[in-house]
Write a structure and sequence with these properties.
Blueprint: H1 2-9, H2 32-39, E1 50-53, E2 59-65, E3 75-80, H3 91-99, E4 102-107, E5 117-119, E6 122-123, H4 150-165, E7 170-176, H5 178-190, E8 197-201, E9 215-217, E10 222-224, E11 228-231, H6 232-239, E12 246-250, E13 264-266, H7 267-272, E14 289-294, H8 302-310, E15 315-321, H9 333-344, E16 352-354
Parallel strand pairs: 3-4, 3-7, 7-8, 8-14, 14-15, 15-16
Antiparallel strand pairs: 1-2, 2-4, 5-6, 9-10, 10-11, 11-12, 12-13
Length: 356
């Protein structure tokens, strides 16, 4: 029963080594060029946030990187960040693609960054996250969502707004890590008829996706990677009709931490950022799809990722970024250039390796 439950949720390979201590590691060490990036000043300053109102009234923060030459008729990208993160941490991609002539909207997913209520009714304020694990839901609760489809409804809201403002532009949906999992969940449900392409950066798409370091610990009470650790007791309670329990803890090292990190997820958010059917979602990627992987990713297996990509009928290119980690793909100007070229003309994409 326990193995079946864990397979369903997805951060587990097997019920083995049940008493290993919980790991203290996280996303791995920055690579050589990533250390140079940090030492040179790191991320650029992002544009000021704007807010769109979700269907439940939550102000959803976003930042539009608009090219100086923007005429509304080129390409635009909606970029979804990964677990624990928020939009400002993706400024290198926003700035890099804007310099290539592509408009980029970088969002704060609900419960992250400024798209959160520190407490009931106090939304969009840059205060520390609070996690009272009483199962009580309110709009914008950090790391939580009303239901497992709430995030996809938010994606629709942003896409509809962008299409209304710039009806002549190509529309590409892009995500990193669990944000790419949300892209896959969205495409799995809605298909790609309304998209000109999809970009998956180091995607965590689904529960059974092979990982580099899966483990069980605490005598069977916890499971996952060093970065993402599931409490099985809380998870079991969440599956028994208490879905707003916090079940997932996210661990970052100092180089990757930021002030507005969301470090805990409820069951609704954890499940809402992955696909429903791990065996069939690939077929929904019928349009052009670019998959980007860091060759030094401490979380995802490169060969397994390539096999996942090959199952997508619209797969355009699988690109590996040299000397780059799971986080580093979001800092890379090489990734920005490849993604911008793909957004403008998906037929131009070619598989291979690029420098960061």
């Amino acid at each position: 029963m326990r193995c079946a439950l864990l397979s369903f949720v997805g951060l587990l390979a097997s019920c083995q080594d049940p008493c290993r201590p919980a790991p203290e590691g996280d996303l791995g060490e920055p690579t050589t060029w990533e250390l140079e990036f940090l030492e040179a000043g790191g991320l650029p300053e992002s544009p000021p946030p704007e807010f769109a109102t979700a269907d439940d009234g939550l102000p959803l923060a976003y930042r539009d990187w608009v090219p100086e030459t923007w005429d509304g008729a080129s390409a635009m990208v909606l970029l979804l960040h990964g677990s624990s993160a928020y939009g400002e941490l993706y400024g290198a991609l926003g700035e890099g693609m804007a310099e290539e002539g592509v408009l980029v909207r970088v969002v704060d997913l609900r419960g992250h960054g400024l798209s959160a209520c520190v407490r009931d009714g106090e939304c969009g304020t840059p205060e520390p996250r609070t996690y009272v694990d009483d199962g009580a839901y309110w709009v914008g609760r950090p790391g939580d969502a009303l239901d497992v489809s709430q995030h996809t409804r938010d994606v629709d809201l942003h896409l509809e707004d962008m299409r209304a403002r710039w009806p002549d532009a190509n529309v590409v949906l892009m995500g990193h890590s669990s944000g790419a999992g949300l892209v896959s969940r969205y495409v799995e449900g809605a298909g790609m008829a309304g998209l000109d392409g999809a970009v998956l950066l180091a995607p965590f798409n689904h529960p059974d996706q092979p990982q580099n370091d899966l483990a069980s610990w605490d005598c069977g009470r916890g499971v996952g990677t060093a970065y993402a650790q599931v409490d099985l007791g809380a998870l079991g309670d969440a599956m028994r009709d208490n879905p707003h329990r916090y079940v997932l803890d996210l661990v970052k090292n100092e180089d990757y931490r930021a002030d507005l990190d969301t470090t805990r997820y409820t069951a609704t958010t954890m499940l809402g950022l992955s696909v429903r059917d791990v065996d069939r979602f690939h077929a929904a990627f019928s349009g052009p799809t670019l998959w980007v992987a860091g060759d030094r990713d401490a979380l995802l297996d490169l060969d397994a990722s390539r096999r996942e990509f090959e199952r997508m009928p619209g797969g355009a290119a699988f690109v590996t970024v040299r000397n780059t980690s799971h986080v580093g793909v979001t800092w890379s100007r090489g990734v920005a250039r490849v993604s911008a070229a793909f957004a403008k003309d998906p037929t131009s994409a070619a598989s291979g390796e690029v420098d960061p």
